[in-house]
Specification:
Elements (H helix, E strand, L loop, with lengths): L14 H21 L6 H7 L4 H7 L3 H20 L7 H11 L1 H7 L4 H18 L10 H20 L7 H21 L9
Length: 197
């Protein structure tokens, strides 16, 4: 099931569904900051959002899915723009958003949430790469997606932790340039043909 799929039988445009999902996502972010991702359970999250546990499960299958939805709005566009030949200026806005929310960003990129975030980002890159025309028969979209996701997270983690200086423009530009070049290399094969022997 996709992380953005709504489980309720009511339409996704129903305001009650939207309010409940927003309350769960807001409570999730608060709990991540207060207690860390590993301490969040469906019961604890439902209580913090002031909804019942069964209501939680009407909207999400797991806490991991809440994480996916909360990060999806940032990762989806970021991946699309990374794989595009020209960087969209809105990528700077997303990177700036990470910086302005670096406390929660650092919390989401650490501990038990890191493998989940990496998996979410890898899936997004794999879907984005599937839309590209693969030239090389040896290309592996799964490996390319894993490489791109790990590299993106490494840059964001290092920058958000203050271990490497840079503005949002510099980080977004570097993420785009490196990501686009890596995607082309993985999907088109080596630029230099080696002769046998």
């Amino acid at each position: 099931m996709a992380v953005t799929e709504i489980r309720s039988s009511r339409p996704a445009t129903d305001r009650r569904i939207q309010r409940t999902r927003a309350a769960l996502i807001d409570a999730f972010r608060d709990l991540v900051l207060e207690h860390g991702y590993d301490a969040i359970t469906p019961t604890r999250l439902a209580a913090a959002a002031n909804v019942g546990r069964s209501t939680f499960y009407e909207h999400f299958a797991s806490v991991d899915e809440v994480l996916g939805v909360s990060m999806g709005g940032l990762f989806g566009p970021m991946v699309g723009w990374t794989l595009s030949p020209n960087m969209d200026p809105r990528m700077v806005e997303i990177v700036q958003h990470f910086w302005e929310n670096r406390k929660i960003g650092r919390a989401m990129l650490a501990g038990g949430s890191r493998p989940v975030v990496l998996s979410i980002l890898t899936e997004r890159f794999e879907a984005g790469l599937a839309d590209l025309q693969v030239v090389s028969p040896d290309a592996s979209p799964k490996l390319a997606a894993a490489y791109l996701a790990a590299g993106t997270l490494a840059v964001l983690e290092t920058w958000l932790a203050g271990r490497a200086p840079g503005s949002a423009v510099q980080v977004a530009t570097a993420l785009h340039a490196a990501g686009y070049a890596a995607a082309r290399a993985w999907t088109e094969g080596p630029a230099i043909k080696r002769s046998a022997g």
